[in-house]
């Protein structure tokens, strides 16, 4: 098996470091503090939540809800109910009848698929609003009389709901009254999370502890990589390791993908020249994803994206040198373009310099003629 995972979580052996974050969050949860977890995209928030759940599963009922793509409170409620059903709750025989009774009470149809996994297709009774279903869900959870942790991943999605302020107030009331439940709210859009949790006029104001994850340290990552290569009786050469650590910016998903590639093509060992050939093909295969970018952006945005990509990182985009190089005429247009690319999550600020969010797009631009 390739130990460098490209998605999901398969236990502590394949999960690198995050020890202090894990301990901090576990301690907070055990002390009845709710958590807001922020980290930019593809850095490892979801995997960290699963890792924390792995440690807490014997003590807590752990519910993981990914609300990406939900557009209203009904979908949110249905998602949370489904996540409850998919949690380790049903594994406990003594809860099964209670779960079925609860599903009946919210008017949900319920089936078990061929793999034995339960799933629910919620059909609300007419008298039920989505808020009622949420109330019923939390009444049900409260009555179970066990300690529960609910992680709501991609929490910023609630800002797309049309009635998000009353919904936030409702959710805030629920979290306040759910004595046996601790929450993790996780997301990747800083300004939205900040507005939900740190804005004085919003219901969730200062109700959670804010935690930010950053990159995994170079030492911890190197140790993890060497351990896995060694145990597969392979060797990773120092310059290859350095190349991967640097050119992925240790942005977890991209580092994992580069390591996964190396592991898959390297028999015992591989030098940098050979690896670069594989890496080049790997990047060029992505052309299909990138070919539509010019149509999705204004001309200036695309030019700028390419200029940053070719350069790698840009500390000061309004320097006269970069203005000339990028062909953007004034500092104020540059500000506008930079902000629009930040908004679109096409670039990010990392270690005080701008770079492309998608590390592989940077390499694609660099390889283009
Ligand atoms: N500590 C880690 N050790 C090893 N692999 C990790 C670690 N954290 C995350 N990964 C891997 O990195 C990739 C991205 O992680 P994950 O999906 O958790 O990021 P995310 O921050 O939730 O991203 P998104 O914002 O897109 O939801 C996955 O392939 C995951 O398996
Ligand atoms: Mg995630």
Blueprint of the fold:
Blueprint: H1 19-30, E1 35-38, H2 45-56, E2 61-66, H3 73-85, H4 93-105, E3 108-112, E4 118-122, H5 130-144, E5 148-153, H6 164-177, E6 181-187, H7 190-198, E7 209-212, H8 218-231, H9 238-247, H10 252-265, H11 272-284, H12 287-290, H13 293-296, H14 299-311, H15 320-326, H16 331-343, E8 347-350, E9 353-356, H17 359-367
Parallel strand pairs: 1-6, 1-7, 2-5, 5-6
Antiparallel strand pairs: 3-4, 8-9
Helix pairs in contact: 3-5, 4-5, 10-11, 14-16, 14-17
Bound molecules: adenosine-5'-triphosphate (ATP) and magnesium ion.
Magnesium ion (MG) binds at residues 45-46, 153.
Notes on the protein architecture:
The protein folds into 3 domains: 18-212, P-loop containing nucleotide triphosphate hydrolases (Rossmann fold, 3-Layer(aba) Sandwich), CATH 3.40.50; 218-285; 293-367, Winged helix-like DNA-binding domain superfamily/Winged helix DNA-binding domain (Arc Repressor Mutant, subunit A), CATH 1.10.10.10. 32% of the residues are buried. The chain has helices spanning 19-30, 45-56, 73-85, 93-105, 130-144, 164-177, 190-198, 218-231, 238-247, 252-265, 272-284, 287-290, 293-296, 299-311, 320-326, 331-343, 359-367; strands at residues 35-38, 61-66, 108-112, 118-122, 148-153, 181-187, 209-212, 347-350, 353-356. The mean pLDDT is 91. It is an alpha/beta fold and 369 residues long. It is 51% helix and 12% strand. Magnesium ion (MG) is lined by residues 45-46, 153.
């Amino acid at each position: 098996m390739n130990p460098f995972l490209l998605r999901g979580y398969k236990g502590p052996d394949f999960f690198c470091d995050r020890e202090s974050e894990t301990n901090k969050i576990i301690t907070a949860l055990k002390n009845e503090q709710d958590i807001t977890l922020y980290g930019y995209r593809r850095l490892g928030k979801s995997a960290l939540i699963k890792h924390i759940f792995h440690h807490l599963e014997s003590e807590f009922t752990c519910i993981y809800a990914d609300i990406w793509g939900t557009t209203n409170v009904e979908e949110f409620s249905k998602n949370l109910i489904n996540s409850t059903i998919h949690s380790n709750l049903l594994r406990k025989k003594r809860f099964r009848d209670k779960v079925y009774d609860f599903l009946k009470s919210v008017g949900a149809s319920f089936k078990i698929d061929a793999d034995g996994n339960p799933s629910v297709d919620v059909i609300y009774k007419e008298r039920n609003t989505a808020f009622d279903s949420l109330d019923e869900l939390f009444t049900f959870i409260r009555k179970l009389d066990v300690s529960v942790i609910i992680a709501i991943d991609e929490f910023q999605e609630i800002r797309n709901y049309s009635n998000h302020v009353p919904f936030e107030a409702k959710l805030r009331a629920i979290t306040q009254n759910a004595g046996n439940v601790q929450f993790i709210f996780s997301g990747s859009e800083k300004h939205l999370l900040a507005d939900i949790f740190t804005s004085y006029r919003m219901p969730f104001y200062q109700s959670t502890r804010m935690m930010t994850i950053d990159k995994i340290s170079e030492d911890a990552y190197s140790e993890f990589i060497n351990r896995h290569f060694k145990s597969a009786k392979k060797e990773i050469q120092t310059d290859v390791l350095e190349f991967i650590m640097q050119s992925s910016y240790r942005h977890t998903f991209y580092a994992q993908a580069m390591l996964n590639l190396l592991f898959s093509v390297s028999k015992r060992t591989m030098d940098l020249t050979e690896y670069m050939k594989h890496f080049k093909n790997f990047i060029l295969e992505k052309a299909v994803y990138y070919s539509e970018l010019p149509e999705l952006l204004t001309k200036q945005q695309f030019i700028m994206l390419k200029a940053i990509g070719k350069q790698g990182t840009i500390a000061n985009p309004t320097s006269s040198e970069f203005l000339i190089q990028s062909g953007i005429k004034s500092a104020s247009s540059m500000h506008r373009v930079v902000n629009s690319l930040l908004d679109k999550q096409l670039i990010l600020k990392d270690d005080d310099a701008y770079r492309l969010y998608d590390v592989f797009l940077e390499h694609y631009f660099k390889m283009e003629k």
